[in-house]
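Deliverable D5.2: sample structural annotation.
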Amino acid sequence: MTVPLIARIGALVLATTAFYGYVGQMVPQKEVQPPAEVVLKSDLTTADMVKVGREIMEGKGLCLTCHTIGKSGALRFPDLAGVDGRAKSRVAGLSDVEYFAQSMYEPWAFIVPGFNPGMPPINKPPVGLTDQEILCVIAYLQTLGGTPTVTLQTKHHYNSGTTAAPPSQGVSPGGTQPEAPLKGEKR
């Protein structure tokens, strides 16, 4: 007895649909919600800032999308375990607070050897953290290999209103990232 061609094609379609339906259910499903708004009170202690900074890194800041804490192997961006110890000596003339601020406001200014540039400035879209949120992230980063010293009143080059650029690599004299010429524009 031979099975008609249309029945064999139908059986193949049903088997394929069942197989891919089964495989699709094995893939973990994760519901992604927009990050929760962070409300910063003006009287946050440094310890409170550390907690808020960790929440921002895990949520709104999207930091842990590319960075890791305590991982090794092939990494997209530098691992942050012990980062405060390295930050104090990474760029000559910059304190850990200034280095962290530069890394977030002008991530192209210093690229850690062995890694490619790719981090966006986090005070602008798509991340868009405020100066106070960035101070909270810096407070958390200081706990990774050091002791947090940042308060909401801490001033650094990017939130103090100064115009002189800190020592950096790859930054134009005005302290901004060099822009590509517009279409049809000559430079």
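Annotation notes: Residues 163-187 have pLDDT under 50 and may be disordered. The domain at 46-143 is CATH 1.10.760.10 (Cytochrome Bc1 Complex; Chain D, domain 2).
The annotation will be released with the project's public dataset once the embargo ends.
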